[in-house]
Amino acid sequence: MKYSLVLATLLSVASFAAQKTDTATTQVEPAPSHITVVCPTGSCTKPAEVQKVEVINPVEISKPKVEKKPAPKPQDDVLDAQHNLLISVVGQGVAPVNTSSPAQAYALAKRAAVADAYRLIAEKVKGVRIDGQDLIKNMMVKRSTVRTSVQAMVRNANIVETTFKEGLCEVEMEINLSRAQFPQ
Amino acid sequence: MRSRDGDQSFTRTISSIIFLLLYSSALFADEYIISYRYSVKNATLYNETLYVSKAMKKCKGKPYNPLILNPQKSENLKEILLANQEEFIEFLYKIGLSVKHQEKSLNGVNESSTTLTLPSKCFKVDFNDNFVKIAPLK
Protein backbone atom coordinates (compact mmCIF):
# COMPACT_ATOMS: atom_id res chain seq x y z
CA MET A 1 0.00 0.00 0.00
CA LYS A 2 2.81 2.37 0.98
CA TYR A 3 4.69 1.55 -2.17
CA SER A 4 1.63 2.12 -4.32
CA LEU A 5 1.11 5.58 -2.79
CA VAL A 6 4.76 6.47 -3.35
CA LEU A 7 4.53 5.27 -6.97
CA ALA A 8 1.39 7.30 -7.58
CA THR A 9 3.02 10.49 -6.21
CA LEU A 10 6.12 9.91 -8.34
CA LEU A 11 4.00 9.45 -11.45
CA SER A 12 2.01 12.63 -10.78
CA VAL A 13 5.23 14.63 -10.21
CA ALA A 14 6.70 13.25 -13.43
CA SER A 15 3.57 14.12 -15.47
CA PHE A 16 3.53 17.65 -13.99
CA ALA A 17 7.17 18.15 -14.95
CA ALA A 18 6.43 16.92 -18.48
CA GLN A 19 3.54 19.43 -18.84
CA LYS A 20 5.84 22.24 -17.72
CA THR A 21 8.47 21.39 -20.32
CA ASP A 22 5.76 21.24 -23.07
CA THR A 23 4.51 24.73 -22.24
CA ALA A 24 8.08 26.01 -22.18
CA THR A 25 8.96 24.70 -25.66
CA THR A 26 5.76 25.29 -27.65
CA GLN A 27 5.49 28.64 -29.41
CA VAL A 28 2.39 30.68 -28.90
CA GLU A 29 0.42 31.09 -32.08
CA PRO A 30 -0.86 34.56 -32.96
CA ALA A 31 -4.35 35.16 -31.73
CA PRO A 32 -7.00 34.64 -34.39
CA SER A 33 -9.02 37.65 -35.34
CA HIS A 34 -12.32 35.88 -34.73
CA ILE A 35 -13.09 33.42 -32.00
CA THR A 36 -16.39 31.62 -31.82
CA VAL A 37 -17.66 31.32 -28.30
CA VAL A 38 -20.42 28.94 -27.50
CA CYS A 39 -22.45 30.33 -24.67
CA PRO A 40 -23.17 28.12 -21.78
CA THR A 41 -26.78 27.09 -21.76
CA GLY A 42 -27.76 29.15 -18.76
CA SER A 43 -26.31 32.58 -19.64
CA CYS A 44 -27.49 33.08 -23.28
CA THR A 45 -31.02 33.74 -24.31
CA LYS A 46 -31.04 30.78 -26.61
CA PRO A 47 -29.32 27.55 -25.73
CA ALA A 48 -26.12 26.96 -27.64
CA GLU A 49 -26.12 30.44 -29.23
CA VAL A 50 -22.93 31.30 -31.07
CA GLN A 51 -21.35 34.68 -30.70
CA LYS A 52 -18.44 36.15 -32.59
CA VAL A 53 -15.82 37.92 -30.58
CA GLU A 54 -13.18 39.98 -32.28
CA VAL A 55 -9.80 39.88 -30.64
CA ILE A 56 -7.63 42.89 -31.26
CA ASN A 57 -3.96 42.77 -30.57
CA PRO A 58 -3.07 45.40 -27.95
CA VAL A 59 -0.01 46.38 -29.96
CA GLU A 60 -2.23 47.19 -32.93
CA ILE A 61 -4.48 49.38 -30.78
CA SER A 62 -1.58 51.61 -29.79
CA LYS A 63 -0.52 52.13 -33.43
CA PRO A 64 -2.44 54.75 -35.47
CA LYS A 65 -4.42 53.08 -38.23
CA VAL A 66 -3.02 53.85 -41.66
CA GLU A 67 -5.22 52.95 -44.60
CA LYS A 68 -3.23 50.99 -47.15
CA LYS A 69 -3.89 52.32 -50.61
CA PRO A 70 -3.51 49.77 -53.41
CA ALA A 71 -0.35 50.42 -55.41
CA PRO A 72 -1.11 51.86 -58.86
CA LYS A 73 -0.84 49.14 -61.49
CA PRO A 74 1.50 49.84 -64.38
CA GLN A 75 -0.67 50.49 -67.42
CA ASP A 76 0.75 48.21 -70.07
CA ASP A 77 -1.57 49.28 -72.86
CA VAL A 78 -0.84 53.02 -72.74
CA LEU A 79 1.62 54.51 -75.20
CA ASP A 80 3.96 57.07 -73.62
CA ALA A 81 7.06 58.90 -74.75
CA GLN A 82 9.52 56.58 -73.02
CA HIS A 83 8.12 53.17 -73.90
CA ASN A 84 7.11 51.54 -77.13
CA LEU A 85 4.06 49.35 -77.30
CA LEU A 86 4.22 45.90 -78.83
CA ILE A 87 0.90 44.54 -80.04
CA SER A 88 0.69 40.88 -80.89
CA VAL A 89 -2.31 39.17 -82.51
CA VAL A 90 -3.13 35.77 -83.99
CA GLY A 91 -5.22 35.75 -87.16
CA GLN A 92 -7.01 32.69 -88.48
CA GLY A 93 -7.91 31.75 -92.01
CA VAL A 94 -9.38 28.76 -93.78
CA ALA A 95 -8.43 27.36 -97.17
CA PRO A 96 -11.16 27.36 -99.84
CA VAL A 97 -12.84 24.02 -100.61
CA ASN A 98 -11.82 23.77 -104.26
CA THR A 99 -8.05 24.15 -104.42
CA SER A 100 -5.80 22.50 -106.97
CA SER A 101 -3.00 21.59 -104.55
CA PRO A 102 -2.17 21.63 -100.82
CA ALA A 103 0.37 24.38 -101.51
CA GLN A 104 -2.32 26.57 -103.03
CA ALA A 105 -4.61 25.83 -100.09
CA TYR A 106 -1.83 26.87 -97.70
CA ALA A 107 -1.11 30.10 -99.61
CA LEU A 108 -4.77 31.11 -99.74
CA ALA A 109 -5.41 30.22 -96.10
CA LYS A 110 -2.37 32.23 -95.07
CA ARG A 111 -3.62 35.26 -96.96
CA ALA A 112 -6.99 35.01 -95.21
CA ALA A 113 -5.23 34.65 -91.85
CA VAL A 114 -3.09 37.73 -92.52
CA ALA A 115 -6.22 39.75 -93.32
CA ASP A 116 -7.74 38.60 -90.02
CA ALA A 117 -4.56 39.55 -88.16
CA TYR A 118 -4.57 42.99 -89.78
CA ARG A 119 -8.18 43.42 -88.73
CA LEU A 120 -7.30 42.49 -85.13
CA ILE A 121 -4.42 44.98 -85.09
CA ALA A 122 -6.70 47.71 -86.46
CA GLU A 123 -9.32 46.84 -83.83
CA LYS A 124 -6.77 47.13 -81.04
CA VAL A 125 -5.10 50.31 -82.23
CA LYS A 126 -7.94 52.31 -83.74
CA GLY A 127 -11.11 50.77 -82.32
CA VAL A 128 -14.34 49.29 -83.59
CA ARG A 129 -17.57 50.98 -84.60
CA ILE A 130 -20.61 49.02 -83.42
CA ASP A 131 -24.22 49.51 -84.48
CA GLY A 132 -27.05 47.45 -83.07
CA GLN A 133 -30.72 47.22 -83.94
CA ASP A 134 -33.43 45.06 -82.39
CA LEU A 135 -36.96 44.78 -83.79
CA ILE A 136 -39.55 43.79 -81.20
CA LYS A 137 -43.11 43.03 -82.23
CA ASN A 138 -45.85 41.90 -79.88
CA MET A 139 -43.34 41.64 -77.04
CA MET A 140 -41.13 39.29 -79.06
CA VAL A 141 -37.78 39.89 -80.66
CA LYS A 142 -38.33 39.56 -84.39
CA ARG A 143 -34.90 40.58 -85.62
CA SER A 144 -31.65 41.34 -83.85
CA THR A 145 -28.80 42.84 -85.84
CA VAL A 146 -25.30 43.83 -84.76
CA ARG A 147 -22.98 45.45 -87.28
CA THR A 148 -19.33 46.12 -86.55
CA SER A 149 -16.85 47.87 -88.79
CA VAL A 150 -13.15 48.74 -88.67
CA GLN A 151 -11.22 50.95 -91.05
CA ALA A 152 -7.51 51.71 -90.66
CA MET A 153 -4.14 51.87 -92.36
CA VAL A 154 -1.60 49.43 -90.92
CA ARG A 155 2.11 49.84 -91.63
CA ASN A 156 5.19 47.90 -90.48
CA ALA A 157 3.35 44.82 -89.25
CA ASN A 158 5.54 41.73 -89.10
CA ILE A 159 4.63 38.07 -89.41
CA VAL A 160 6.18 36.23 -86.47
CA GLU A 161 4.92 32.68 -86.91
CA THR A 162 2.69 30.75 -89.28
CA THR A 163 1.08 27.40 -88.53
CA PHE A 164 -1.13 25.34 -90.81
CA LYS A 165 -3.04 22.45 -89.33
CA GLU A 166 -6.08 20.60 -90.65
CA GLY A 167 -7.02 23.33 -93.12
CA LEU A 168 -6.76 26.14 -90.57
CA CYS A 169 -3.93 28.61 -90.90
CA GLU A 170 -2.87 30.71 -87.94
CA VAL A 171 -0.62 33.71 -88.38
CA GLU A 172 0.94 35.51 -85.45
CA MET A 173 1.63 39.15 -86.25
CA GLU A 174 3.31 41.88 -84.29
CA ILE A 175 3.40 45.63 -84.59
CA ASN A 176 5.68 47.92 -82.63
CA LEU A 177 4.10 51.28 -81.86
CA SER A 178 5.99 54.34 -80.72
CA ARG A 179 4.69 57.77 -79.85
CA ALA A 180 6.75 59.35 -82.64
CA GLN A 181 4.55 57.55 -85.19
CA PHE A 182 1.54 59.56 -84.04
CA PRO A 183 2.11 63.27 -84.73
CA GLN A 184 0.71 65.49 -81.97
CA MET B 1 50.62 63.64 -136.81
CA ARG B 2 47.31 64.32 -134.99
CA SER B 3 47.21 66.71 -132.03
CA ARG B 4 45.85 65.59 -128.64
CA ASP B 5 42.43 67.14 -129.11
CA GLY B 6 42.52 67.62 -132.79
CA ASP B 7 39.75 65.16 -133.78
CA GLN B 8 36.85 66.72 -131.94
CA SER B 9 34.16 64.60 -133.58
CA PHE B 10 35.91 61.42 -132.39
CA THR B 11 36.08 62.75 -128.81
CA ARG B 12 32.40 63.73 -128.91
CA THR B 13 31.38 60.26 -130.11
CA ILE B 14 33.38 58.53 -127.38
CA SER B 15 32.00 60.83 -124.66
CA SER B 16 28.40 60.33 -125.85
CA ILE B 17 28.89 56.54 -125.79
CA ILE B 18 30.25 56.74 -122.23
CA PHE B 19 27.33 59.02 -121.25
CA LEU B 20 24.83 56.54 -122.69
CA LEU B 21 26.49 53.63 -120.90
CA LEU B 22 26.45 55.48 -117.59
CA TYR B 23 22.82 56.48 -117.90
CA SER B 24 21.66 53.19 -119.35
CA SER B 25 20.46 52.05 -115.95
CA ALA B 26 18.51 55.28 -115.59
CA LEU B 27 17.02 54.79 -119.04
CA PHE B 28 15.82 51.29 -118.10
CA ALA B 29 14.45 52.44 -114.72
CA ASP B 30 10.75 52.91 -115.23
CA GLU B 31 8.04 54.16 -112.98
CA TYR B 32 4.97 52.06 -112.46
CA ILE B 33 1.71 52.59 -110.64
CA ILE B 34 0.75 49.47 -108.72
CA SER B 35 -2.37 48.75 -106.71
CA TYR B 36 -3.35 45.53 -104.99
CA ARG B 37 -6.45 44.37 -103.19
CA TYR B 38 -7.83 41.17 -101.75
CA SER B 39 -11.02 40.32 -99.95
CA VAL B 40 -11.71 37.66 -97.36
CA LYS B 41 -15.27 36.57 -96.67
CA ASN B 42 -16.03 34.39 -93.66
CA ALA B 43 -12.33 33.60 -93.14
CA THR B 44 -11.88 32.39 -96.75
CA LEU B 45 -10.06 34.26 -99.53
CA TYR B 46 -12.67 35.51 -101.96
CA ASN B 47 -11.11 37.86 -104.49
CA GLU B 48 -7.65 39.12 -105.35
CA THR B 49 -6.65 41.79 -107.87
CA LEU B 50 -3.31 43.25 -108.86
CA TYR B 51 -3.17 46.25 -111.19
CA VAL B 52 0.13 47.27 -112.77
CA SER B 53 0.39 50.24 -115.12
CA LYS B 54 3.22 52.33 -116.45
CA ALA B 55 3.18 55.86 -115.07
CA MET B 56 1.93 58.35 -117.65
CA LYS B 57 3.78 61.20 -115.99
CA LYS B 58 6.81 61.41 -113.75
CA CYS B 59 6.23 60.57 -110.10
CA LYS B 60 7.57 62.65 -107.25
CA GLY B 61 9.58 61.26 -104.36
CA LYS B 62 12.65 59.22 -103.61
CA PRO B 63 12.83 55.42 -103.68
CA TYR B 64 13.17 53.65 -100.34
CA ASN B 65 13.25 50.10 -99.01
CA PRO B 66 13.87 48.33 -102.37
CA LEU B 67 12.99 44.71 -103.12
CA ILE B 68 15.01 42.57 -105.51
CA LEU B 69 13.13 39.96 -107.51
CA ASN B 70 14.10 37.25 -109.96
CA PRO B 71 12.81 38.24 -113.44
CA GLN B 72 12.13 34.58 -114.42
CA LYS B 73 13.07 35.38 -118.07
CA SER B 74 10.25 37.89 -118.41
CA GLU B 75 10.19 41.59 -119.12
CA ASN B 76 6.61 42.16 -118.10
CA LEU B 77 6.41 43.54 -114.56
CA LYS B 78 3.04 41.98 -113.80
CA GLU B 79 4.30 38.53 -114.78
CA ILE B 80 7.41 39.03 -112.65
CA LEU B 81 5.32 40.09 -109.66
CA LEU B 82 2.97 37.13 -110.06
CA ALA B 83 5.92 34.76 -110.34
CA ASN B 84 7.37 36.18 -107.09
CA GLN B 85 4.00 36.59 -105.43
CA GLU B 86 4.96 35.54 -101.90
CA GLU B 87 7.95 37.91 -101.65
CA PHE B 88 6.02 40.76 -103.20
CA ILE B 89 3.06 40.40 -100.84
CA GLU B 90 5.37 40.24 -97.80
CA PHE B 91 6.93 43.43 -99.17
CA LEU B 92 3.50 45.05 -99.40
CA TYR B 93 2.79 44.16 -95.77
CA LYS B 94 5.85 46.21 -94.83
CA ILE B 95 4.79 49.18 -96.97
CA GLY B 96 1.36 49.18 -95.38
CA LEU B 97 -2.13 48.15 -96.32
CA SER B 98 -5.50 49.69 -95.69
CA VAL B 99 -7.88 47.45 -93.73
CA LYS B 100 -11.62 47.60 -94.10
CA HIS B 101 -13.63 45.10 -92.11
CA GLN B 102 -17.38 44.71 -91.82
CA GLU B 103 -19.17 42.15 -89.74
CA LYS B 104 -22.88 41.50 -89.47
CA SER B 105 -24.63 39.33 -86.93
CA LEU B 106 -28.28 38.65 -87.76
CA ASN B 107 -30.19 36.66 -85.16
CA GLY B 108 -26.93 35.13 -83.98
CA VAL B 109 -25.65 34.19 -87.44
CA ASN B 110 -22.36 35.90 -88.23
CA GLU B 111 -21.00 37.10 -91.58
CA SER B 112 -17.74 38.93 -92.03
CA SER B 113 -15.87 40.58 -94.85
CA THR B 114 -12.33 41.99 -94.71
CA THR B 115 -10.60 43.85 -97.52
CA LEU B 116 -6.90 44.67 -97.57
CA THR B 117 -5.95 47.35 -100.09
CA LEU B 118 -2.72 48.85 -101.30
CA PRO B 119 -3.82 52.24 -102.66
CA SER B 120 -2.36 53.16 -106.05
CA LYS B 121 1.31 53.83 -105.42
CA CYS B 122 4.22 54.80 -107.63
CA PHE B 123 7.17 52.38 -107.77
CA LYS B 124 10.53 52.79 -109.42
CA VAL B 125 11.52 49.60 -111.23
CA ASP B 126 15.04 48.83 -112.51
CA PHE B 127 15.16 45.99 -115.03
CA ASN B 128 18.46 44.14 -115.23
CA ASP B 129 19.53 40.86 -116.79
CA ASN B 130 19.58 38.86 -113.56
CA PHE B 131 17.34 40.81 -111.23
CA VAL B 132 14.60 43.40 -111.04
CA LYS B 133 14.79 46.08 -108.37
CA ILE B 134 11.50 47.57 -107.28
CA ALA B 135 11.18 50.39 -104.76
CA PRO B 136 8.23 52.54 -103.69
CA LEU B 137 8.58 56.32 -103.94
CA LYS B 138 8.10 58.52 -100.92
Summarize the topology.
The complex is a heterodimer of chains A (184) and B (138).
Chain A: H1 2-25, E1 34-38, E2 50-54, H2 58-62, E3 85-94, H3 102-125, E4 129-137, E5 140-154, E6 157-165, E7 168-177
Antiparallel strand pairs in A: 1-2, 3-7, 4-5, 6-7
Chain B: H1 8-22, H2 24-28, E1 29-41, E2 44-54, E3 67-69, H3 77-83, H4 85-95, E4 97-106, E5 109-127, E6 132-136
Antiparallel strand pairs in B: 1-2, 1-5, 3-6, 4-5, 5-6
Short summary:
The complex is a heterodimer of chains A (184) and B (138). By secondary structure, chain A is an alpha+beta fold.
Describe the structure.
The complex is a heterodimer of chains A (184) and B (138). Chain A has 184 residues and is an alpha+beta fold. Chain A has a domain at 85-181. Helix content of chain A is 29%, strand content 34%. Chain A has helices at 2-25, 58-62, 102-125, and strands spanning 34-38, 50-54, 85-94, 129-137, 140-154, 157-165, 168-177. In chain A, the strands form three sheets. Chain A has a three-stranded antiparallel beta sheet with strand order 3-7-6. In chain A, strands 1-2 form a two-stranded antiparallel sheet. A two-stranded antiparallel sheet of chain A has the order 4-5. In chain A, β6 and β7 form a beta hairpin. The longest helix of chain A has 24 residues, at 2-25. Chain A is elongated, with a radius of gyration of 37 Å. In chain A, 14% of the residues are buried. With 138 residues, chain B is α+β, with helices and mostly antiparallel strands. Chain B has one domain (28-136). Chain B has four helices and six strands, in the order ααβββααβββ. In chain B, strands 1, 2, 3, 4, 5 and 6 form a six-stranded antiparallel beta sheet that branches. The radius of gyration of chain B is 23 Å and the shape is elongated. The interface between A and B is medium-sized, with 35 and 29 residues.
